[in-house]
Amino acid sequence: MRTSAALANASLITFSAILTVVFAMAVSLLLYFAQGLNRTEMEQAQSLIEKSINGAEKSLHLTIKDYAFWGDAYKHLHRTVDFDWAYVRENFGPAQFDDFGFQGMFVLGPSDRTVYSVIEGKFKDISAAEWIGRPIGELVSDARAESKYEEVVTLITTLKGTPTLIAAAAITPGTDPTVEPDGRPSSVMMIVKILDPAKLDAIGENLGIKGLRIATDNDTTVPRVILHGDHNNVIQLQWSAVKPGRQLVIFVLPLIVLAGLTIFLMTWIILRRNTKDARALDENHELLRNSQAALAISESRFRDVAEASSDWIWETDIEGRVTYLSDRFETVTGLSKTQWLGIPIDNLVDLQHGTLLDWLRSNNRLCNTTTECSYTDVHLCKRIAKIAARNIDKQGFRGTATDVTEEIESRQRIEYLSKHDVLTGLPNRSQLREFLDSKFSTVLALNSPLAMLTIDLDRFKPVNDLLGHAAGDRVLNKIAARLKQCVRNEDIVARVGGDEFVMVISGKVEHSEVETICRRLIGLIEQAIVIDGQNIFVSASVGIAMAPRDASQAIELLRYSDIALYEAKTSGRGIWRFYDREMNDRIIERRRLESDLRYAINHSELRLQFQPRFRISDGKMMGAEALVRWEHPIRGLLTPEEFIPIAEETGLITALGDWVLHTACSQAIRWPEDLFVSVNVSSKEFQGGQLVERVKTALITSGLVAARLELEVTESVMLEDTDNALLLMRTLKSLGVRISMDDFGTGYSSLSYLRSFPFDGLKIDRSFVNRLSEDPVDLAIIKAVIGLGRALSLTVTAEGIETLEHLQLLDSVSCDEGQGYFLCRPMCASKFDDLLLSAKHVSR
Ligand code: C2E
Ligand code: MG
Ligand code: MG
Predict the structure, then answer these.
(1) Which range, of 224-233, 325-334, 661-670, averages the lowest pLDDT?
(2) Residues 583 and 445 grouped into a single domain
(3) CATH code of the domain in which 389 resides
(4) pTM: predicted TM-score of the whole model, two decimal places
(5) For FRET with 782, which of 115, 412, 609, 764 sits at 20 to 30 Å CA-CA?
(6) CB 403 near ligand 1, within 6 Å
(7) CA 373 – CA 347 distance, rounded (Å)
(8) How many domains does the chain have?
(9) What is the 649 CA–ligand 3 centroid distance (Å)?
């Protein structure tokens, strides 16, 4: 009777244990999934915020380089502080506060005294250290030191608890050969950008993250991003995290708990009916389990202590023959203890200089010193051990051997890593610098010629964007291997940036030989790279500078080959260019244009023209495209192609785009209500943020209905940051504005972009329309595009209609709308108003 009751009890316990495990697993799985969901959401937000802050620091880095390494700045801020040039003409003053939001801008003279300060766009007599509230001597000297490598210092820190970006750079003549350095220590330019609560909030809004702010509490369970600033400064940012996992738990957990409680209650009632014997049996089992566990713990503690130390102990007689080895000897070396007893210890270990016995016997050996030796273990692998020894009363020696193989290998690895690029194994910038220093350090080396090739991959970014970073890394590895094939042992090829490499070929090299090398290396790079069964094609541009012909200093050579690379890149793909002086002049010229453009935007030198767009079927005017011009006081009327790229590179595009948006909207408000105005938006404006806010402001200040504004964007917008572009376009659409894809057919238009992005129309590039009368294929393409547009409910516009024939052919394939010189040329606002007044809508 007793036995069967115990058996029944035991099976009930097993049953309830299984149930417990099942419920515990269900709850753990639920919590695990919920946590996973929360974590993914949080990690995405963290990565976006970090990327955004790093982006801001990078942009600061580029901007200060532009301003500080500049001949004009050297003349007007270093030689003398030209208030008129800097503040009145806004070359380094209020405009930079408006354009870039720099709250603090300073110049420190050769004696480190602050000689020029602009605080929040206003001139103020205050020293940089006083305004920043801490000593800046170290920052200033770092900036001067970095200028030797054409570099600047940027750092992230906190000012009164607010995260702040600071950049400092020595002011140098840059590439301007007309400006001679005056021999005094350089002045230092410093700019400060404070990420105040409003800026942080705007950064968050742009990323779709609510309430980005500085962390105010120490509650580590709230997600945060930790930024490491200078002087061990830690900046923590918080945001209002969305927790999708919580919803799941709130809904499902009560159901599981309810089911669990019901079943447990039933089991408990049954258990109570069982006899005390079952409990006694349980207690016995418990006692047994406890004593077994205690035994196991004690055994494992003993094993851990015995094996934790990697040292083995040895003893020799006075002749150096082994007399004792501890058990650890066998574990560490794998060799047999007994086989080594009686054998001279010098047969076992090798010292780099002399023998161990010599070292043991040497009179001046201090008892605390150690020596390093090597030995061969049972697997015939060479290992390194550190030996410590004591004399045993003239009878011999005794000591320990510590295996330090891993430590030495990791030291060597760190040394290797500091000089090599981790991804490709090529030398990195620091090894390249050492190599060049050795080449240029002696007069002998100075006379030996060398050629420097700066190589930059073309179209590498799309590989990363479309196939992912892992594929991008594999491509870089293959390219690195191919580049290595082009250099000899005495030459070097280094990776100095994401997709930028520098090759240095020493010895006397002729132009034609360098060209052969370029042809070979571009040929090798252009060969297909197979990644996961897919053929990937990249190309490369090369800039070349030669020493001593072009330069006699490493830093100059690097800069000149970079300038030549810039020319090669702007000339197309797969091209190489040798440096010549005119390139430098062109860059200086471009700098000048940049400075003029900054002035032009704030001093009414921009003009807007309007070119009407017509419905092809009946010639009705539908709206007009706003096209910007620049009336340069010396160069005359400049087309957008001449200055938009400069505006994009320098960040002036935001100010320029604002002017265009406001002028276009306030002009259109005077037109009949059925006409829209379309404004071109650069892809850089998509990246800069605030586009939605800017469009909203233009609509509100002009009073134009959103539906009457169309934004024209090109395909590059989607290529550069697809997810962000999609988000921005959807927000713009929610305002009510129309969006059309400009210059369709010139880029990489993928059908999936057209389908997934919220376009209202597409504009066929004028290169297709131009060839209409010559090439029937173009008509077929246009027909196909119109079909595609219709299927996706897009309005198709043909650009560049120059003849009656073009218009008739487009009509024959039912193209919706058209624009071109034949219909109407772009004209100034007043002429456009006259055109509307005379109601002379151009028709066929
Ligand atoms: P787009 O948006 O494709 O503008 C059409 C261009 O074609 C204009 O050149 C226009 O004058 C020209 N065009 C119009 N009809 C004909 C024709 O029948 N034949 C020929 N050969 N050309 C014609 P424009 O004004 O020089 O503008 C060039 C490009 O500059 C624009 O191309 C646009 O991408 C950019 N752009 C113009 N204004 C702005 C602006 O305010 N902001 C930005 N970000 N870009 C602008
Ligand atoms: Mg356009
Ligand atoms: Mg176009």
Answers:
(1) 224-233
(2) yes
(3) 3.30.450.20
(4) 0.53
(5) 609
(6) no
(7) 12
(8) 3
(9) 21
